[in-house]
Write a structure and sequence with these properties.
single chain, alpha+beta, Aminopeptidase, eight-stranded mixed beta sheet, three-stranded mixed beta sheet, 5 helices
Amino acid sequence: MQMETFNGYEYYLKKDRELTAEEKEELHAFLIKMYPAFAKYYKKNKYYSTIKPQMTCLIREPTSKVLIGSGKFLWNTLKTQIGTLKLFAFGVLIDTEFQKEGLGTHLIEMLIKLAGEKNADLLYGSTENPAVHKMLSRLGFKKITCPVVYVNGVTGKRETQTINSYAFEFKKGIINRINSLKEFDIGIGPM
């Protein structure tokens, strides 16, 4: 487990097996609060992602220790049309009340550093939020312009990502090569 603070908020980055049953329940409740439409999915899978391996970040308010944000960090080695890639991916969710304080930006900066330490080729994320588009661009992410496809980890069906996908490249030129493809298959997803 890694722990650090940012503006007093506590960030705990844990491997899946390090999460306690209480933390998983807390994540479960937080996700349903933020996205009630996905309650059925979260109830089935218990928390954020069915993809393994992964790490989870818990962001806590400093005084009450209440969970006010979470993030996921996962990885996979892919065999693609442009060669084998070490793809790392992330997801970030910050409680509406605590947005615009730099908490998500700080988490993504942590994950860029961690992915670099793990010799990633790419760090991947997707979003529909215009503010997140700007933040990712500021952090050096580039848009993936070709369709991103994956096998849905729950249904087993092949799907196409319909929201904006971004990647931070650790090896120059990879995103240009990906964007030249007919489609970019990220394996099991959505990541």
